[in-house]
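Dear support,

I submitted the protein below through the web form. The confirmation email said the job was done, but the results page showed an empty box. After a refresh the structure appeared. I'm attaching both so you can tell me whether what I see now is the final result or a partial one.
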Amino acid sequence: MRKTIGIMAPSSAVEAEGLRAGVAALEARGARVVVHPQTFARRASLAGTPAEKAAALRDLLADPQVEVIWAARGGNGAVQALPHIPNQAGKPLIGYSDATAWLAVMGGVHGPAVTALPQARAQDIDAVFAVLEGGPFVLRGLPFRPGRATGRIVGGNLAVLSALIGTPFAPDFTGAILALEDWREEASRIDRFLAHLANAGALARIAGLAFGDFLLQDTGVMPYGLTLEESIAERTAGLHIPIAVGLPFGHGGRNTPFPIGARAVLEGGVLRSPE
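What the results page shows now:
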C-alpha cells in the first residue's frame, strides 16, 4: 500500500548524502516521501534544538498527507526533546537506538532509521510496511529461561531506556515484555544498566525479557570479566519469567521490526504477534 512518509531528525545531525539512499529505498517501495527542513538542522552534533525537533514533529503530525513519521537516524539528542513532544502521536513513529526515548512516549514501530535502510536487509524493510498494516511479526532467537508470557512490548536501546527510569517518560513495565538491544557499550556499563532496571523495580514488574543484538566493547584497563549471559543471569535471579537472547533486532545488521506498545507472545526464544 502506498504510504506518505514524513522524515525528521529527533537525534543527531544528518548529512544529505546519507539520507538520499534511504529515501530512494522508500520510494522504490512505492512510498511518497516528505523530508522536513529540520532534518538538516544543526546545533553542534545534533539536528537542531529540542524546540526545533518538537516543532518538526508537530508539523508532520498536523500534515493531513503524512501517514507515517520516520526517524532520519539515531545518535543522541532525543531525550533532551522529551518535555516538548506530545505523549500520543496519532501517527506511527518508526526508529530505533536513540529514538527509543520517543517510542517510549509515543509508541510506534521499532525498526531501522532512514539512513540505515541502504544497509538493512530487504526483508526487514518490507516487514516495516507489513507491521504498519497490522501484519504479524516473528523474531526468532534462543531460549535463555523457559516459560511463556503475553504482554505489551516496551523497550529498545538499553542505555536510552535506562536514562528514562525515574522520569515521567519511562514506560509502564507492569506485565510487559521488555525488549532490549545495545552497541558500542562496555560490558560493565551494560551490567550497570541492567542493575539499574532491577534496582528501580522495573524487572520485577515485567512478564518477559527479550534481548536483541548486543555489540559490546571492552576498552577498560582491566576487562570486566562478565559475559552478557552472566549479567543477565545475575540481574534476573529470582525472576520466574521467560527470557530470550539473540533476537534479530538492534545494531547488528539484523533489525526485524516490531510494534512498541502492541501485545506479543514470548515463548521458546521467539517473540511474535499473538495468533
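Response: this is the final, complete result; the empty box was a page-load delay. The mean pLDDT is 96.
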